[in-house]
Design goal:
Layout lengths: L1 E3 L10 E2 L2 E2 L25 E3 L2 H10 L6 E4 L10 H4 L1 H11 L3 E6 L8 H10 L2 E6 L5 H7 L6 H13 L4 E4 L11 H13 L4 E3 L4 E3 L4 H12 L3 H9 L4 E3 L3 H15 L5 H9 L12
Parallel strand pairs: 1-4, 2-5, 5-6, 6-7, 7-8, 8-9
Antiparallel strand pairs: 3-4, 10-11
Helix pairs in contact: 1-3, 3-4, 7-10
Length: about 290
Amino acid sequence: MHYADHKTILSPKNGMNIYRGCSHGCIYCDSRSKCYQMDHDFEDIEVKRNAPEILEEQLLRKRKKCMIGTGAMCDPYVHIENELQMTRQCLSVIERHGFGLSILTKSDRILRDLDLLTSINKKAKCVVQVTLTTYDDELCKIIEPNVSTTSERFRILEIMRDNGIPTVVWLCPILPFINDTEENLRGLLRYCAGSEVKGILCFGFGVTMREGNREYFYQKLEEHFPGMSDIYKMKFGDSYECRSPNSDRLMSVLRKECERLGILYKMNDVFSYMNEMTPRTKQTSLF
């Protein structure tokens, strides 16, 4: 862990990364890619010094309330969050100023902050997003070794449901020849149905590979699935998109189940839901 100085924390689209790097060890992680220009080891997490103060300064300059997003690049609940509580401090700033929150994680550490999430949702809007990739907890421990298991993440979704906080599941990545089965998909969909998720994001069934994350992924494939990296190299070469041969069939299952259950699944619909504030945050016209 090391600190770095930054003048801003919010992107033009109101996203933020409190940490850069991750300790969760997911073997497929796109954030390892060299294109993101991290000049430090991925596990040597960079902490944005004074992140809560910088966030507050930027929120005070905003002319209207909006949704603040975090977690798309690096998980806000990495292990050092237990000690530093940077994410909790930033959530407190968001809650105090009446902004909305869209937060993505794979960790049940988020439950520590249920009080703030609930308050944000009452004042504005809070959407908790959880990534699910593998129904089998034992397989989950291999491909996502240092993070909450799938069943533990299901518990996050249940607790959010019970507290009236809407949830969205990221159903990705699904690894070709490893967990790209209908059995796996239907197991994950049962979790989504049981926890009454609002939406599911799926960009097709497969995984993306770029310089930086490809090498790490192949190393871990050889460690846990001997011979699998050779299959990937032969099938996908240096392709960015490694699409499962079962993708079309699985996508058909996903669409039918989401329509049956009333779950949003079209990308534009899901992103619109996550990014839009609720009507109660809008000012009433005087005319």
